[in-house]
Design a protein that fits this description.
The complex is a heterodimer. Chain A is of the alpha+beta class. Chain A is built from ten helices and 17 strands. In chain A, β14 and β15 form a beta hairpin. In chain A, α2 crosses α3 and α3 packs across α4. Chain A is globular. Chain B is globular. In chain B, 73% of the residues lie in helices and 0% in strands. By secondary structure, chain B is mainly α. The chains are: A alpha+beta, B mainly alpha. At the A-B interface, β5 and α2 of A face α6 and α7 of B.
């Protein structure tokens, strides 16, 4: 992993984490380092072991092997937001009480956390009467309020409708980067970041590449209980190390070109009459921004996005690739 | 049916006129009810929490025993406790036979499964996610217990109401262990039994009415505690008034 400038030491180091469920090995020798002030995003398909990994590093499941060293305290937000039958404010204060915060400061810290997540107006509402998006914000507010050294968020956007999801994603990304403008987003901004989110080493499990792009300082990809890719978002998401990782990361087009295997995301494939690749439109799916084309080529198949007046099924087209990844066969 | 009217009149009379005898019976009854409920709660709440929230081998077996304990026949429990407390018996040295404390012991044994089994059921229904979130934020055991009890308070206080009600109403174990000694170990319920045997139906009914009143008042106080701050408005078809 590339050492990042200006980043303080690791808050959590895990080595060789192995977890078994019955006879099945769910995690297989996972190494992991979470650094202060940095957001690590954990990506992986369903059943890859993402939630188990979070549970393992927060000590909620027994380890079959490996060890975890934490400098400070870990707070984990479960995937489901379950609340006590009390007000929003009482629920956040309760979380502070669980954490062991002094009674005198709970009220102010709860108020500050609600403010940060833009839900101060909900403070006196009954927590169980909130909408999905509101409930998720309260859920996040209570783990941010405790100001942990290591913050673990398990799919904070799961089960939300798209607009609520985008709102919270945007706010959370801003919160993690607060203190800096767009041009000094990320680590530079992080150093002066908000109190609640600023100094924690954060690990977020997400489902979606868009969420990873929005939040991550570093990305880890988990497949079948192993870390198969790790690094900066641009490194991992644009240059996946193996075809397997690439396929998971949305490189849907696949082509044999001589002795290389070329994988391309839809956005990297363009219709171009002068392009080097000739093929035939095989399927055509209208979307809100145009059409999605599936083009069959002699060496495989590519997908691309095209305007609505794109060629019909059966038409011969030529394609250009910008930034696809190549693997030697 | 004149009996009932006479009983009501007698009850009013007994209550209005300072009656040392009645006051003593009332005091013994309350003493037994409160102490056995408190003792059963001190043991039964932790037990119920353990079996309701715990994940360990033997939990189901333990729960089955607690639930079976709900059907303990008071007379049999009274008999066994008495046999242990008689002079010369293993616990005879405690000198609890024919005392109020002996009655409290028997009633605690009877109330314990009620408190423990209903508490276990009530806390087991608290959303698991809430408990694990508390644990994930480092909540200590007492805090998790307090959370579960508070969230399950409708069921838990219901268990305490049931325990108190049975402790003040029960006669079998009271008579066997306490001896139903007039002016010493007689409770309202056992006094009713005595009065009926003596053909004093009016007094019996009067005592019965006072016992019912005691249960209503104490049960009511606990109900206030139970329902304070609960979220639920109830299902729409059970809601009598729009709030």
């Amino acid at each position: 992993m590339v050492p990042l400038e200006g980043v303080v030491s690791a808050a959590l180091t895990a080595a060789g984490l192995t977890v078994d469920r019955g006879r099945r090995r769910v995690l297989d020798g996972v190494d992991l380092e979470l650094r202060r002030g940095e957001v690590t995003v954990l990506l992986g398909p369903n059943g890859a072991g993402k939630s188990t990994l979070l549970a393992a590093i927060s000590g909620q499941v027994p380890l079959a092997g490996g060890r975890v060293a934490v400098d400070g305290r870990v707070a984990a937000a479960a995937q489901t937001a379950a609340f006590a039958g009390r007000s929003v404010r009482a629920n956040v204060e309760l979380a502070l009480a669980w954490w062991g915060a002094a009674r005198a400061e709970r009220r102010d810290r709860a108020a500050a956390a609600l403010e940060e997540l833009g839900i101060a107006a909900l403070a006196e509402r009954r927590a169980r009467t909130l909408s999905g998006g509101e409930a998720r914000r309260v859920h996040l507010a209570r783990v941010l309020a405790v100001r942990p050294d290591v913050l673990l968020l398990d799919e904070p956007f799961a089960g939300l409708d798209p607009s609520a999801r985008e709102d919270i994603l945007f706010d959370l990304a801003t919160l993690f980067r607060s203190g800096g403008g767009d041009d000094c987003a990320g680590l530079a901004g992080r150093a002066t970041g908000s109190d609640a989110a600023g100094r924690a080493a954060t690990c977020v499990v997400v489902h979606d590449r868009a969420e990873a792009w929005a939040l991550a300082d570093r990305v880890l990809v988990l497949l079948d209980g192993r870390i198969v890719a790790a690094g900066l978002p641009a490194e991992v998401l644009d240059h996946p190390p193996t075809p397997e990782v690439a396929r998971f990361l949305g490189f849907t087009g696949e082509l044999r070109d001589g002795d290389a295997l070329v994988l391309a995301r839809r956005g990297q494939v363009t219709l171009d009459p002068a392009g080097p690749y000739a093929g035939t439109v095989e399927r055509r799916l209208p979307t809100e921004d145009g059409v999605r084309l599936e083009v069959a080529l002699p060496g495989g198949r590519l997908e691309c996005l095209a305007p609505r007046d794109a060629p019909v099924v059966g038409a011969a087209v030529r394609l250009r690739l910008d930034g696809a990844v190549r693997f030697r066969l | 049916m004149d009996f009932i009217w006479e009983g009501v009149q007698e009850a009013v009379h007994l209550l209005l006129h300072q009656n040392a005898e009645l006051r003593h019976i009332l005091w013994v009854t309350l003493h037994v009810g409160v102490f056995s409920t408190v003792l059963a709660a001190l043991i039964g709440l932790p037990l119920g929490l353990t079996f309701g929230l715990g994940r360990f081998r033997g939990r189901r077996v333990g729960l089955a025993f607690l639930n079976a304990g709900l059907g303990l026949p008071p007379v049999v429990v009274g008999l066994i406790v008495a046999l242990f407390l008689f002079r010369g018996a293993p616990l005879g040295g405690l000198e609890l036979i024919y005392t109020v404390n002996g009655i409290i012991l028997a009633q605690t044994i009877l109330a314990l499964p009620v408190v423990a089994a209903f508490t276990a059921t009530a806390v087991a229904a608290v959303p698991r996610g809430l408990i694990s979130q508390a644990e994930a934020l480092g909540a200590s055991r007492p805090r998790v217990a307090a959370l579960a009890l508070r969230e399950a308070r409708v069921g838990v206080i219901g268990a305490l109401i049931a325990a108190f009600g049975s402790a003040v109403s029960e006669v079998g174990a009271v008579v066997l262990v306490g001896g139903n000694i007039h002016g010493q170990t007689q409770t309202l319920a056992s006094a009713v039994l005595t009065e009926v045997s003596a053909g004093e139906y009016g007094t019996a009914i009067a005592l019965g009415i006072i016992l019912l009143g005691l249960i209503v008042v104490c049960g009511g106080l606990l109900t206030v505690l139970q329902q304070r701050g609960t979220d639920d408005e109830g299902a729409p078809w059970f809601r009598w008034r729009a709030s």
